[in-house]
Amino acid sequence: MKQLDKMPPYQRAIAKGHLCSCGTAYKELDKPIIAIVNSWNDIVPGHCHLRELAEEVKRGVIAAGGVPLEFNTIAICDGIAQGHKGMKYVLPSRELIADSVEAMIVGHGIFDGMVMLASCDKIVPGMLMAAGRLDLPAVVVTGGPMQNRVAPKESKTARQAFLRGEIDEAKLVDVTLKYYPSAGVCPFLGTANTMCIVAETLGMSLPGSATPPALSERRRSIAFESGTTIMELLRKGVTARSILTKEAFENTMAVVSAMGGSLNTFLHLPAIAAECGVEVTFADYDRISRRTPLIVRVAPNSQEYTVADLEPVGGIPTIMKELQPLLHEETQAVNGKKLADNLSAIQPADGTIIRTLNNPFSPEGGVAVLQGNLSPEGAVVKSSAVPSESWIFRGPAKVFECEEDCMEGLATGQIQEGDVVVVRNEGPKGGPGMREMHRVTEVLTKVGRTALITDGRFSGASAGLAIGYLSPEAAEEGPIAYVQNGDMIAIDIAKRSLLWEISKEEEKRRRSLGLAAVLQQEDSLLLRLYGQHATSAARGAVRR
Questions:
Q1: Which of 7, 40, 229, 294 has fewest C-beta within 10 Å?
Q2: How far apart are the C-alpha atoms of 488 and 507, rounded to whole Å?
């Protein structure tokens, strides 16, 4: 039965009157109503072209016998939010997005299915969380990557030159526009592209939909096909949770590991899974990464290739085809086929951009979970972006109470080569909001060989020995709250080890003196509420 038909007759008539006032023909309301859940705006490069894609989705829905009705939700650009208070709002916006979709769908009670359009860091996971929470037939349409006109190295070199005062703002913007030349997802394998890949590997986007370029004809055809696909899912009664299974999450963790994808998936996959009644843990991720070879290196793990280079060599289906012996083949995608069937006619790996299983870049995946007395619940590092000479590192702690203090320390020469920089009070509760420390990682390159440890998180673009998502965080009285300047910290990525070299007696003594970390004061009610209810990074930073 259609959702609209479940209303009492009088209320149904009034609801139809309101919908007709917006331009929908009365007779059309006998058809299934599909929500076009958009996140378009004029601010975010990955989202500024979604209005055009939404029109293609609508055409597909209409062609397949449905009625598309569109509404919008928010989208924050991580690149613009970096390095200031705005970054505190980015992770909480994930919950706002999921909540706003729930409010619109349940509040109106008229929608039979959803096509969700999103591209970037917290928007795709917010949409997937809503899909799992509502458990309607749903398809996700992502925006596709930009096609960069210069190599990643040129963009990185320009940024470093600006930091050294060698080029001005106009020159940096000029180079940036060659690397980010159009609408679309930023070209590197950051959180945005990683989450678009996640939508595909979970089965919630059409197979082969993550890597076609943003402004390509193929991208528009994917949008149209997604509109027809939602109608087929509705006819078959296939809802989001029947696709979002534990096995689908394990397949996704394998693909992200094989590509050295964004560490933010350690937050988002547990959060999406929780909405589906499925548990995904740091331990699951580390187990899968250990057995999954690294077969893809694109920026930031390479300075030669970007995500746009994957499409000509087969995209995500070819990566999954190569990984097929390690995957659950019975998982289902929105096109109605099982993984084994979707991979049956896929082109083989080219051997250069996508390597084969018997000739990987590394025998293990590109992400790792570190354990030890500094991180009892785990901490995460993108091992594929760490130079081999830094896999083992030991040095004295240089402690900062927040990102701003660390940036001031960098500006005033407080940090020396060989230091282990500790930035705390940046977790889900302590931030509140769990900012990315991406600007810190960029500026640290000027110092030389260092390590960074934080209860905050990182951009998918971050590289180097940067360990984050440390749990429990300082605000929950995790060990990081009691680290002091000069304490020795030892890191061994191969052994998955993160050790704080003090005795249990000394840690107990420090704890007896009270919380060492300084909790940040926050005026924003939104952020205070998030901080009060957020769980640890090891649990996806979801609310409780």
A1: 7
A2: 13
